[in-house]
Amino acid sequence: MRHEPFDEMRRKNPVPPDQLPAAPMGEAARIVGARFVMPGWAVAVAAAAVVVAIGGATLLLVDRPDSTPVAADTTSVASSLPEDTLATDAPSVTPTTVAPPLIGPAGEVVVYLLVDDPTATDFSSQALVPVVRSLATISSEITDLPSMAVAFLLAGPTPPEIESIPAMTTAIPEGTFLLDMDVADGVATIDLSTEFAAPSGTFGEIARLEQLVYTLTRFDEIDGIRLQIDGVPVEVFGGHGIELDDPVVRTEFDTSLPAILIDEPAHGATVGNPLPASGTANVFEASVSIALTDADGLIIWEGFTTATCGTGCRGDWSIEIPYTVDVAQRGSLIVWEESARDGSQANVREHPVWLVPESETPPDTTATTLSPDEYRCTGSLVDPVLTDQPGLPPANAAMRAAIFEAAVRCDWESLRALQVEGFAYSFGDNEDAVAYWQQLELLGEEPMRFLAELLNRPYGTQPGPGESEYYAWPSAFVTEWGLVAEPDREALRPLYGDDDFAVFSDFGGYFGYRVGIIDGTWVYFIAGD
Amino acid sequence: MTIVRSGARGATPEETFRGLFAQHYGAVHAYCSRRIGRDDAADAASEVFTVSWRKIRRVPREPETLPWLYGVARNVVANHRRSRVRRERLDRRVAEHADYVWREEATGLDSVLAALRDDDREVLMLVAWEGLGPEDLGRALGCSASTATVRLHRARSRLSATWDELGGPR
Question: Do A23 and B22 touch (CB under 8 A)?
Answer without folding.
Answer: yes
